């Protein structure tokens, strides 16, 4: 039994639904009307209001435990969601049921990379909202069980210098990761090929705080027929992570910031052996005229800087040595529809039945502990 | 030695450069001025002229045998290209040098899927140009060695009924495949999710003539930073084939046309095990609300209808059983920059050293013979 009882599952991609008080409990009184607050619609839905606009993304895809036949409609009220979606203590019980020890949660209303706060005219309010989310995340959500929640924060990314300050502030109070868009350009921001993000990357590099890029956070979807069934879009989402990995590997980022680590979130791993070889082949054959680094092989950059994770991925596990056993982590995706909850541990045990114990331990627990400096001494 | 001397290499993705006479030798006299003809520019380049416009795509990427340090500039004159790029008899010698028995060539000036002839006002001329290319391909190029060239034709795709007629005409005179865009929508044409292409698909289905979808023929490139080095675009091109496979698998095409076979050209195979499982998982979890076929599993549709090919692809060969050994073919890509010419057979032999003989034979020769009904009795 390669997945042994003493090995603790650490999931590196989960999602929390913000409870109503995240901003209302923390913003100055003068900000509370314009800041994020829950509004009841005439149709009986609960939606977020922010700077005068309504956002009906309350329970985005929080369907864990529902029968598959009922997928397709997001919950529109807190009382339609599992309590564990928005309550960190109830979440621990759901984690226990599924055999999951620790989780790292992405935000929902702020969007997975915090890009919601690029919207709205009032940048001062937006900054206070970013700070309030981060304080909630560290002081309330993760504080409910510091050994079971990895704190990942967001940045005021309209301003790299403000981002640097907020990044340093949150790392000082315990943040172990930061979420960032997989490609900033479709959001109207400079690309990873500019120096624009250097203040942020420098903090990540110096404090060894990984940057987590969740698929879909660029706001774009892989191209497909506009009248294709929604299943096409679902199946292709991992391609976004491919676009990002290739963009990063052929950028100057890892040459400028040699300790920078990037985790691809929900992008899966089964395509990595193919893409690593494809990048290597591209580099071997085309490096002389394409203005890329001529000294370091893509395969070595990947090994040093890129991490992937999976829910289920037979191909990726079979070819784990071509990815790097140290570069693979596991994720639950609770409470979204791709989560296997409450069968997480059982299915993972079956999926890893043929993998040596030490490799299983690295993948389910030790890689995440080391990458996120998360209780390594508790391993 | 799994790749044994009696196994003949059949490449299913190569490229020919049209010699100057393809259209001038075949079009009626009145068409010759407006039809495709070679023009010398003041800068000493040879370019195609068609319906009053100049197209500087003469020798697109025809660099086989050049040192890699010289990649990046396409040849601009016939005399800068290897003779085998545009002469079918000289090509045979190049194939012999590399140990390649047979090839299937995509067109260059008409673009890989014949979409050039969507341009221009004169549709009558365009149709005669399509017919002239197909006649050249069958009567001149492939006729130079009918047992070594698989005839693949193009269609007048602005009109599905004209396409049906031309498809039937060319199949009757020996065509064994047709090239088509991987996604017609970015070209301003209806998608694979409509009934628009049924006349073409019906011919493919009834005559068991595979449709070949070369990556890039949709005219789009996978999304990446606009200021990324060109290497990013090169490395990501296989994603186009992923988009297409997922679009097709979740379409109604294979349910309407159960004998339809689709070959993905130059898209490689290493991503297929991942994407097959991803489609299967998407179908298992999300089929109830996404308007896809509820009865047939994606993994079974793939096995019945989709073929891939590779130049070098370690991941794909390792996981060949998860793709289907009967669904994998080999390609040379001569004379483009990804071709290994003249080392094709030598490198393939090394890459397949650990694969059983019978599987090697299927992959390098027998699958192509069966799929394209190409001299199966000569095997």
What structural keywords apply?
homodimer; alpha/beta; 6-stranded parallel sheet; 3-stranded antiparallel sheet
Word description of this protein:
The structure is a homodimer of 379-residue chains. The first copy, chain A, is 36% helix and 12% strand. Chain A has 14 helices and 11 strands. In chain A, the strands form 3 sheets. A 6-stranded parallel β-sheet of chain A has the order 6-7-8-9-10-11. Chain A starts with 9 loop residues before the first strand and ends in an 8-residue tail after the last helix. The mean pLDDT of chain A is 95. Chains A and B meet through α6, α7, α9 and α11 of A and α6, α7, α9 and α11 of B.
Q: Could you give a short description of this structure?
A:
The structure is a homodimer of 379-residue chains. Chain A is an alpha/beta fold.
Provide the helix percentage of chain A.
25-40%
**Most extensive contact:** A-B, 66 and 66 residues
Look at the structure and give the mean pLDDT of chain A.
95
**Binned strand content of chain A:** 5-15%
What oligomerization state is this entry in?
homodimer
SSE layout and pairing:
Two copies of one chain form a homodimer.
Chain A lengths: L9 E6 L5 H4 L12 E4 L5 E5 L2 E3 L32 H11 L3 E5 L16 H19 L10 E2 L6 H13 L4 E3 L18 H10 L3 E4 L15 H7 L1 H12 L3 H4 L5 E4 L6 H15 L11 H8 E5 L3 H5 L1 H4 L4 E3 L13 H8 L5 H15 L8
Helix pairs in contact in A: 4-5
């Amino acid at each position: 039994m390669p997945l042994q009882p003493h090995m603790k599952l650490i999931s590196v991609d989960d999602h929390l639904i913000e409870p109503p008080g995240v901003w209302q409990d923390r913003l100055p009184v003068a900000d509370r009307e314009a800041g994020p607050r829950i509004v009841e619609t005439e149709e009986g839905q609960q939606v977020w209001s922010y700077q005068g606009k309504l956002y009906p993304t309350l329970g985005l895809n929080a369907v864990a435990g529902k029968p598959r036949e009922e997928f397709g409609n997001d919950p529109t009220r807190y009382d339609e969601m599992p309590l564990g979606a928005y309550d960190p203590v109830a979440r621990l019980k759901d984690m226990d049921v599924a055999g999951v020890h620790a989780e790292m949660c992405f935000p929902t209303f702020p969007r997975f990379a915090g890009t919601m706060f690029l919207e709205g005219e009032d940048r001062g309010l937006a900054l206070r909202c970013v700070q309030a989310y981060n304080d909630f995340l560290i002081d309330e959500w993760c504080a409910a069980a510091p050994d079971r929640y990895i704190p990942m924060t967001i940045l005021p990314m309209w301003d790299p210098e403000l981002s640097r300050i907020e990044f340093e502030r949150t790392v000082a109070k315990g943040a172990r990761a930061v979420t960032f868009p997989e490609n900033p350009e479709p959001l109207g921001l400079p690309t990873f090929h500019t120096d624009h993000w250097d203040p942020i990357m420098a903090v990540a590099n110096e404090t060894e705080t990984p940057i987590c890029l969740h698929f879909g956070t660029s706001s774009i979807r892989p191209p497909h027929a506009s009248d294709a069934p929604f299943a096409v879009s679902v199946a292709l989402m991992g391609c976004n992570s491919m676009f990002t990995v290739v963009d990063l590997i052929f950028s100057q980022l890892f040459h400028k910031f040699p300790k920078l680590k990037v985790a691809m979130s929900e992008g899966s791993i089964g395509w990595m052996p193919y893409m690593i070889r494809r990048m290597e082949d591209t580099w071997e054959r085309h490096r002389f005229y394409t203005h890329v680094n001529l000294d370091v092989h893509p395969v070595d950059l990947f090994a040093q800087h890129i991490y992937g994770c999976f829910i289920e991925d037979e191909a990726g596990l079979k070819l784990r040595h071509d990815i790097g056993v140290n570069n693979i982590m596991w994720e639950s995706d609770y409470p979204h529809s791709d989560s296997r909850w409450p069968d997480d541990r059982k299915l993972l045990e079956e999926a890893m039945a043929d993998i040596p114990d030490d490799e299983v331990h690295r993948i389910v627990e030790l890689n995440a502990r080391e990458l996120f400096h998360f209780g390594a001494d508790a391993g």
